[in-house]
Amino acid sequence: MKALWQGAVLAESSDTVVVEGNHYFPAASLRREYFVPSQTRSTCPWKGEASYYTVRVGDQENRDAAWFYPEPKEAAAQIRGRVAFWKGVQVTE
């Protein structure tokens, strides 16, 4: 699977975990030069507190377009150390 935005490959892996229709990529598969930590947080009742990254490609910025659960609840343990995407980021094979 690949995560693409603005012509850049943000992440690529054959080992994604699908939860609620979202592919969670291993954190090690991210091309870190495109990711900027965000202060945004949100809470999911069964997964826990999510943190976000803003994606930056060239002079284009996609605020909070990637998220992860640093300490997921037990029910979501399979996504520990993984990152998912939204806001126009294409996830494709």
In short:
Helix content is 0%, strand content 57%.
Could you characterize what this model shows?
The protein has 93 residues and is mainly β. The protein contains no helices and nine strands. It has a six-stranded antiparallel sheet with strand order 3-4-8-7-6-5, with no helix packed on it.
Classify the helix fraction into a percent range.
Answer: under 10%
- Beta-strand content bin: over 45%
Count of helix runs: 0
Radius of gyration: 12 Å
Low-confidence stretches: none
- Mean pLDDT, nearest integer? 98
* Strand line-up of the largest beta sheet: 3-4-8-7-6-5
Helix/strand class: mainly beta
Task: State the separation between the terminal residues, measured CA to CA.
Answer: 4 Å
Encode the helix/strand succession as letters.
Answer: EEEEEEEEE
Can you count the beta strands?
9
Profile the largest sheet. Answer: 6 strands, antiparallel
SSE order and pairing:
Blueprint: E1 2-5, E2 8-12, E3 17-19, E4 22-26, E5 35-44, E6 48-57, E7 60-68, E8 82-85, E9 90-92
Antiparallel strand pairs: 1-2, 1-9, 3-4, 4-8, 5-6, 6-7, 7-8
Tag the structure with descriptive keywords.
93 residues; mainly beta; three-stranded antiparallel β-sheet; 0% helix; 57% strand
